[in-house]
Write a structure and sequence with these properties.
about 425 residues, Rossmann fold, eight-stranded mixed sheet, six-stranded parallel sheet, 14 helices, binds uridine-5'-diphosphate
Length: about 425
C-alpha cells in the first residue's frame, strides 16, 4: 500500500518533552516505521518549522518525512496553526502530483482537515480514502480545561466535521469511542488501534540510573498542567506522614535542559507548590531527556506515576510496564485500558493526592508487590502493545476503508445513466 501520514505539528523527527512534542510524535514515527517494515511505502508530511530542514528526509527503505511549507518556518504553537492548513494541503497534493496514495491518514484534527482537503484535490476522479486518528478530542479538552483551553474556537465545529467526513476513524481507546458516539458518529466507521511501545528500547534488562534517596518515584511527560504532576507533589507530604520521607520525585520533561526550565511556567509552578507543602528537597526536575536515555531512568524507579486530568491514550505507562515498573495511574481515558487495576499497577480516582499517596505507600512498603505488578505489566506490554501488532491492526483498518470506498465507487451512478 502507498500511505501518506499527515502530522501537522508533531514531526517524527522532533525532540520530545516540549509543550507540543510528545505522544503524537512517538506514535507517528513508530507506526510509520512498523508499516514500512511490513512492506508499505509511507510518506509522513509535517510542517516545516525551521529554515534549515531539508525538504525530504529518508528514514528507512520505504519511509520518508517531507517538510511542507505551511506558515512561517519556525516553531508556532499548535493551537495557532489552523490558518496554514490549506497551504499544508496544497503542498501535500502537489507532492502527490498525478500519483496519489492508496490512503491518507490524518493525525490530530487539523491534520485531518489538511488530509481531507488534499484528498479532494487528489488528481484523479476518485477521492483518496481518508483515515483519521484524533489523538485528543476538543470536547474532552474543553470539559477539563474550560477557559484555559487555547484551541481555536473553530475546533468546535471543524473537528466533528472531520469526524463525519473521514472514511474511517481509528480511536486509540474505548473511552474515545464513547466520546465519538456522543458526537453523533456511527460506531460502524470506528476501528480501535491503541498506541504501542518500542519493545526493542523499553525492556526490563539493561543499565539503570543511580539514585540518591531510598525510594524514587518518576513522572514523565510534557510539562503542562493537565498532566497533573502537581498532584504527585501534593502527595509527597502525605507519603511522608505514612512513613516514607526519603522519597525522591524525579520529573522528566519540559523543553530544554534544567537551566532552561527556570523560565518554564509549569516548572516554576511545581517548584512553588513543592516549597509551599514543604517537599522542595524531594523534587527534582530533569528537563527534556533523549529517548535512548529513558529506559535506564524508568528502570531506576520504584513506581511511575501518571495522574493526568484526562488522557487520550498515554504512552508513558506502557513504557513503564515494558520496563517492568508498576504504574500508579488516574482512572481516566486510555489509562483505563492499559492498566489493569492491581495486576499491572494501581488505578486511583482523578485529581486525588490522598489516593496517590495511599497507592504509593502500599507499593513502597512491599517490594514483592512491586515485582509482581512489574512482571505482569511487562507481560501485558509484550503481548498487546508491540508497534508491529498496532501496525497490523491499523493495516486492517486501511483495508476495510479501501474495500468500503471501492464498494461505494461501484454504487456511484455513472454520469448520464438512467436513474
Ligand atoms: N518523552 C521523552 N523525553 C522527555 C519527555 C517525554 O522521550 O523528556 C516521551 C515519553 O517517553 C513518551 C512521550 O514522550 O514516549 C509522551 O507520550 P504520552 O502519550 O505519555 O503523552 P502525550 O505527550 O501524548 O500527552
Amino acid at each position: 500500500m502507498r500511505i501518506s501520514m499527515v502530522s501537522e505539528h508533531a514531526s517524527p523527527l522532533a525532540a520530545l518533552g516540549g509543550v507540543d512534542a510528545g505522544g503524537q510524535n512517538v506514535h507517528v514515527a513508530a507506526l510509520s516505521t512498523a508499516l514500512a517494515r511490513r512492506g508499505h511505502h509511507v510518506t509522513v508530511y509535517t510542517r516545516r518549522d525551521a529554515d534549515d530542514l531539508p525538504e525530504r528526509v529518508p528514514i528507512l527503505p520505504r519511509l520518508e518525512v517531507v517538510h511542507v511549507e505551511a506558515g512561517p518556518a519556525c516553531h508556532v504553537p499548535k493551537d495557532e496553526l489552523l490558518p496554514f492548513m490549506a497551504q499544508l494541503a496544497d503542498g501535500i497534493s502537489n507532492d502527490w502530483g498525478e500519483r496519489p496514495p492508496d490512503v491518507v491518514h490524518g493525525h490530530f484534527w487539523m491534520s485531518g482537515l489538511a488530509a481531507l482537503d488534499a484528498a479532494r484535490r487528489g488528481g484523479t476522479d476518485a477521492r483518496v480514502p481518508v483515515v483519521q486518528t484524533f489523538h485528543a478530542l476538543g470536547t474532552v479538552k474543553r470539559r477539563h480545561q474550560g477557559v484555559e483551553d487555547t484551541s481555536p474556537v473553530e475546533r468546535q465545529w471543524l473537528e466533528p466535521s472531520v469526524a463525519r467526513s473521514a472514511d474511517r476513524i481509528i480511536a486509540t481507546c474505548s473511552d474515545e469511542v464513547f466520546e465519538l458516539k456522543a458526537m453523533g458518529i456511527d460506531t460502524a466507521r470506528i476501528s480501535i488501534a491503541p498506541c504501542g511501545v518500542d519493545l526493542g528500547l523499553f525492556s526490563g534488562s539493561g543499565p539503570r540510573e543511580g539514585r540518591t534517596g531510598t525510594h524514587r518515584i518518576l513522572s514523565v511527560g510534557r510539562l503542562v498542567p493537565r498532566k497533573g504532576v502537581d498532584l504527585v507533589v501534593r502527595a509527597l507530604p502525605l507519603l511522608r506522614d505514612a512513613g516514607f520521607g526519603d522519597v525522591e520525585l524525579l520529573i522528566v520533561g519540559g523543553g530544554g535542559d534544567p537551566e532552561a526550565l527556570g523560565a518554564d511556567p509549569e516548572a516554576r509552578r511545581l517548584l512553588a507548590i513543592a516549597d509551599a507543602v514543604g517537599v522542595r528537597r524531594q523534587v527534582r526536575l530533569r528537563g527534556q531527556v533523549r529517548r535512548e536515555a529513558m529506559p535506564g531512568i524508568f528502570r531506576s524507579a520504584d513506581a511511575v506515576v501518571c495522574t493526568p486530568w484526562y488522557e487520550p491514550f498515554g504512552i508513558v505507562p506502557l513504557e513503564a510496564m515494558a520496563c517492568g515498573v508498576p504504574v500508579v495511574a488516574a482512572a481516566v481515558g486510555g489509562l483505563r485500558d492499559t492498566i489493569v487495576d492491581r495486576r499491572t499497577g494501581i488505578l486511583v480516582p482523578a485529581q486525588d493526592p490522598a489516593a496517590i499517596a495511599e497507592a504509593l505507600a502500599e507499593l513502597l512498603a512491599d517490594p514483592g508487590l512491586r515485582a509482581e505488578l512489574g512482571r505482569a505489566g511487562q507481560k501485558r506490554a509484550l503481548a498487546r502493545y508491540s508497534w508491529d501488532r498496532v501496525a497490523a491492526e491499523t493495516e486492517k483498518a486501511y483495508q476495510h476503508t479501501l474495500a468500503g470506498s471501492a464498494a461505494a465507487r461501484r454504487l456511484e451512478p455513472v454520469e448520464g445513466a438512467a436513474l
